[in-house]
Write a structure and sequence with these properties.
By secondary structure, the chain is an alpha/beta fold. It contains 13 helices and 14 strands. Strand 8, helix 10 and strand 9 form a beta-alpha-beta unit.
């Protein structure tokens, strides 16, 4: 089959980026709009985005245009107007789904991509793809957490008596059901499923039911303290039980502390990643702590700057450059699949040891 220009483009983009493609010299620095809260309950998160993005912009020859994000329903059109008036070539940030709702359609005709660092709402991406809106997501999709948990269970627990339990909340129930559907398609059927009452001081009856069912390993779709109570009560009853939870485990270790050996699938601490070393040092020198959205904000500017350089070199729209290339960033390689989601699932397996979650390397490493 004859190779087309479209088929060669991702390879060419990768080669250009591998050579450290820079933005062409311009009289005016290219602008990127940073949509993030400047006041209100999410102001601290907005500041984290701005701190990281501003430092990266200084290195990349990019000008940041701050746009306040109120996270109020109906605010999307106002945000879109400000982006268009600013002359920005792309917009990053978007902590809240309310900001994207109404902002994306006006960005389609001028070809201004939007990159959200936070919004996971599945519906907004479905609408964007259907309507050709240039939205990209540098945050996990709603399916990523369940997919990683199912992957870990199928890989590490193929021959155990597995229980799936949840706290009855929408997220807990849907997460447990998604895992169940995934593992059952691969021939692994849970030995026990149940819904427990959350927020209890003890869960002795639950762990006894788990023991009666013969379960030795359990996924808990609940918050960190519920997991800690279940693990504690199993130990007190002399019931050997290996426990794993989801992203909700990445919370304050109180009032009941987690037991060492408790597992979780969580988003990693970006500061511990090898790719973050240089950025963390730069941030520290600038008096900025690399926490929360600081590194994602830094990485988003890197993605924008490299994509803009590739767009200019190949004479293609910026959205196409974003869709076709793989970018080296402070949070690791970033690329997008056909659905404009992250190509690589960011969730990782970790184990609680000595007061912190420690990454668990894949088997064989």
């Amino acid at each position: 089959m004859e190779e087309t220009a479209a088929m060669r483009r991702p390879l060419l983009l990768s080669a250009l980026l591998g050579l450290g493609l820079a933005l062409p010299a311009l009289a005016d620095m290219p602008k990127v709009a940073l949509v993030a809260p400047q006041s209100g309950p999410f102001a601290a998160l907005g500041k984290q985005m701005r701190d990281g993005a501003t430092l990266a912009a200084g290195k990349s020859g990019v000008e940041i245009v701050p746009i306040d994000e109120t996270c109020e329903p109906g605010s999307g059109q106002t945000i879109a107007n400000q982006i268009l008036e600013s002359g920005a070539k792309a917009a990053i940030g978007f902590l809240c789904s309310e900001s994207l709702d109404g902002a994306l359609a006006p960005l389609k005709e001028p070809g201004i991509p939007a990159i959200t660092l936070s919004v996971r709402w599945k519906g907004i991406m479905e609408d964007a793809l259907k309507n050709g809106w240039p939205l990209f997501r540098m945050a996990p999709s709603t399916e990523d957490e369940a997919e990683r948990l199912a992957e870990v269970i199928l890989r590490d627990w193929p021959d155990v008596a597995l229980a799936l339990i949840d706290d009855g909340t929408i997220h807990g129930r849907e997460l447990a059901e998604a895992i169940r559907g995934n593992i059952e398609t691969h021939g692994l059927k849970p030995a026990f499923t149940d819904t427990f009452r959350p927020g209890q001081e003890q869960q002795l009856s639950l762990v006894r039911r788990l023991q009666k069912a013969g379960a030795t390993h359990v996924f808990v779709g609940g918050d960190r303290n519920d997991v800690a109570v279940i693990a504690r009560d199993a130990t007190a009853e002399g019931i050997p039980l290996t426990v794993i939870g989801g992203e909700a485990m990445n919370a304050a270790d109180m009032p009941v502390p987690l037991a060492d050996g408790t597992l979780a699938v969580i988003l990693p601490d970006g500061t511990a990643e090898p790719d973050a070393t240089a950025a963390v040092a730069e941030l520290k020198a600038a008096g900025i702590q690399a926490e929360g959205y600081v590194l994602p904000g830094y990485a988003a500017v890197t993605v924008f700057a490299e994509a803009l350089g590739a767009s200019g070199a190949l004479k293609i729209p910026l959205a196409e450059a974003l869709a076709d290339a793989r970018f080296a960033t402070a949070i690791g390689p970033v690329s997008f699949n056909e659905g404009h989601e992250l190509s690589d699932n960011p969730y990782r397996l970790a184990e609680w040891r000595d007061g912190r979650f420690v990454p668990v390397p894949p088997a064989g490493q």
